[in-house]
Amino acid sequence: MAEHKFSYKEVIGHGWAMTKKYWSSILLIAVIYIGINLLSGVVQYFAGSGPIHRNEIREVYKDSIQADKFYQYLEDTGYIDRSGNVKDKLQNVKGEGDLELSSDFESQRGRIYDFLNKYRYRLPFPRVIFYVFTVGMWVVSMLMGIGFLKAYLKIARDEEPEIAELFSNWRILIPYLLGALCYGLVIMGGFILLIIPGLIFMLMFQFCFYLIIDKGLGPIKALKRSREITKGSKGRLAVLGMLLMLLNIGGLLCLVIGLFFTISISSIAMACVYDRLEKTFIV
User: Cys-Cys link to 226, which of 62, 85, 203, 207 (CB 3.0-4.6 A)?
Assistant: First the structure.
């Protein structure tokens, strides 16, 4: 078995060099990602926040007695049911003047309306269309997750990424989802065993997604292969992870522009490490 070593300076430097070279493609990918997430966020906002829970009333009334009294009032007046779900009476409220409030709550009319308005369904189409949209956006987000890894792998290899590949990876969607499920269960099991095993498993199996996307491996084979290629390198991977975390904290301090570069550098660096470990591994 070959010694699995890589230079921190080399992979981070490579990430910086490729970010500078392919900055326009990376920027386009970022714009598409942000745009889709903004669209999803806006739709989710106008779809309402689900049931109203008693503890959420604290946004209006800090006092627990008054909060419980207001929650009971909403239920008694038919604005919500016993589970906190919005009923038609609240759904039909179009402005704060439409609210039916007793004298105990009249002074907070504006705040109460703003609070309750978050839970009303305000989209111009039936809920069934919203549910279909939500499922569709979930699938798109999974495809984009695959596309991002694929794009950064290409950039790490000094190849121009194709934007269409962000949404065209249907063939490996199921293996990717199963891989994510297996990875999550393994990590969860590791954290149940007093945290440290979970951290070790994160380092050991982190390249399973690259292997599913790049090599077409199934979820179990990808996990096994990731375990193999990271043997002898987990300590260095942990240090690299901390360095990249510090890099991204620095990017966060530089606001949006800084994060654009640091996230790109980090992603390319990790793709570069995957390539090095995979190519130097000898069965």
Answer: 207
Can you say whether residue 145 is alpha, beta or left, with left for phi > 0 and alpha for psi between -120 and 50 degrees?
A: alpha
* Residue 84 maps to a domain: yes
Please state the domain count of the chain. 2
Distance in angstroms (rounded) separating the CA atoms of residues 7 and 85: 55
**The pair of three-digit structure tokens given for residue 203, joined into one six-digit string:** 């380092």
Distance CA 215, CA 206 (A): 15
Q: Which of 27, 22, 3 is nearest to 154 (CA)?
A: 22
**Domain, as residue range, for 199:** 8-35+170-280
Beta carbons within 10 angstroms of residue 126's beta carbon: 10
Model pTM?
A: 0.84
Of the listed ranges 11-20, 41-50, 80-89, 190-199, the one predicted with least confidence: 190-199
Residue 281 banded pLDDT, cuts 50, 70, 90: low
Decide: residue 36, CB within 10 A, 0-12 exposed, 13-18 middle, 19+ buried: middle
